[in-house]
Amino acid sequence: MQLDIFTLLLILGTGCIFLGMVLLLAWLQNRSEDGLLWWSVSLFLRTPAFALILLRERIPDWLSIDVALALLLLGAGVSWAAARRQSCRPVNLVAVAAPAVLWLMAGRFPEIHSSLGNRVAFVSAELSVCALAIAWEFRRQSRTMGRLRAAMAAVFLLSGLVHAARAVYAAVHPIPEMLPDIGNLVASSLYVYLLILFAGGVIAVSFYWEQLVSSLKYEADYDSLTNVLNRRAFEARAENLLRPGARRQAPIALLVFDLDHFKSVNDRFGHSGGDTVLCGFCALVQGQLRNVDLFARIGGEEFAALLPNVGRQESGRVAEQLRRAVAELQIDRPGGPVSVTVSIGVAVADTAGVRLDELMTRADAALYDAKTRGRNRVRSAGQARADQASFPPPGARRAEQLAG
After folding, report:
1. Residues annotated as region Disordered (predicted)?
2. What is the pLDDT of residue 5?
3. Which of 6, 119, 170, 373 is deepest in the core (most CB within 10 A)?
C-alpha cells in the first residue's frame, strides 16, 4: 500500500495548529509558565512550513523549499528553547535560530538545494540534533521534576533516532524528486513523527495540568504572605502526626508563638512594615527548624510549630533558642531596621491518643502565661500548672484559712 505523503503532511500541519492552540490557551491561563508559550510558537512555526511543502510545484522554490524548511527548523529550535524554559533555564536566541540559519547557508549549494534526497538528509540530520538536545534537557529535568519529564525525554529521544535514520537512508539511498514518489519508508518516518508529535503534545498538556494542580494545592495549603503552612493545612498534617500509629509512642511538642506588641509595629511602620516583619520572622524560624517539623501561620501574628520526637526538655531548649534569635533579629526596611520579640507557649504530648485541640489548648494557656508575665519569654504547660498549684488564687487561700 502506497502511503500518501500529502495526507501525512496535511495531518501534521493540522495537528500542529490544534496542539499549538491548546498550549496557547494553557499559557493564557497561567502566564508564569512561559515554556507553554514557547511550545505553542514552535508548533505555529511548523504549520506554514507543512503548508508550503504541500504547495510544491505550485509556488516558487524559494518558498516551498528555502522558507518552508527554514520555518520547520526554526520551530525545532524554538522547541529546544521551550524545553529549557520548562526548567527556568536561560535561552540563547543564537542557538534557537542556528538550525534555520545553517539550512539557509547550506541551501546555497546546488548539490544540496537541487536534490530532494540531499535536502531530506541535511534537514533530517538537523532535526535529529534538535530532538536529541531537547531529550537531554528533559532528561536533566527528570532527575528532580518527576516522571513526566522522563517520558518527554523518551519521546524526543525516539524522535531524534527516527530523524537520524531518515537522514542516513536519504544519504545512501536514491530518493525520487517528486513528493508523491518519495517511497513508503520515508513516508512512514513522517507517520512516526506524527505519532511522536501528538505524544509530545499530550505530555506537554500534562505538564500544564501537573503544574496547575500543584499551584492550586500550594495556594490551598500555604499562607500567601509568608509562604508557610496555613492553619487548615497545619491542622490536617498535625492530626496525621498525632495518630498513635504514626507516632509509635514517641513524644511530640507543640510551640505556639505570638509576636509581642505587633499592633505597635503596624502603627509605626504601616501594614507593609508589619508584613516585612512577619516574613522575616518566618524565614528565621524556618531556618532553625528541621525538615520534619511543621510550621504554620494560624492567625494574624500567631504561629505554631509541631516538633515530632521532641520531649519536654528538648522542646524548652528549642523554644528558648528561637526566642533569643527573634530578639536579636534586625529586619531591614526603609526608614531603619525593625526589631521584635516573641512569647512562646510549649505543650508536649508524651503518650499516644492526645488530640491536636487538647495540645493546642495547653500551649495557648502556656502562651497566655508567658504574656501575662511580661512577654518575650518561654513558658511550658507544665510550668503554668505548677505555678497555679504553688500559688492558688487569693479567694482559695482565704477559704483555706477560714476552714482552718
Report:
1. 377-404
2. 66
3. 170
Query: pLDDT per residue over 149-160, tens digit each?
Result: 888 888 889 889
**DSSP collapsed to 3 states, the chain:** CCCCHHHHHHHHHHHHHHHHHHHHHHHHHCCCCHHHHHHHHHHHHHHHHHHHHHCCCCCCHHHHHHHHHHHHHHHHHHHHHHHHHHCCCCCCHHHHHHHHHHHHHHCCCHHHHCCHHHHHHHHHHHHHHHHHHHHHHHHHHHHHHCHHHHHHHHHHHHHHHHHHHHHHHHHHCCCCCCHHHCCHHHHHHHHHHHHHHHHHHHHHHHHHHHHHHHHHHHHHHECCCCCCECHHHHHHHHHHHHCHHHHCCCCEEEEEEEECCHHHHHHHHHHHHHHHHHHHHHHHHHHHCCCCCEEEECCCCEEEEEEECCCHHHHHHHHHHHHHHHHHCCECCCCCCECCCEEEEEEEECCCCCCHHHHHHHHHHHHHHHHHCCCCCEEEHHHHHHHHHHCCCHHHHHHHHHHC
Domain that holds residue 61: 5-221
Q: Which residue has the higher pLDDT, 213 or 361?
A: 361
Taking the whole predicted model, whether its pTM rises above 0.90 is answered as: no
Residue 163 lies in a domain: yes
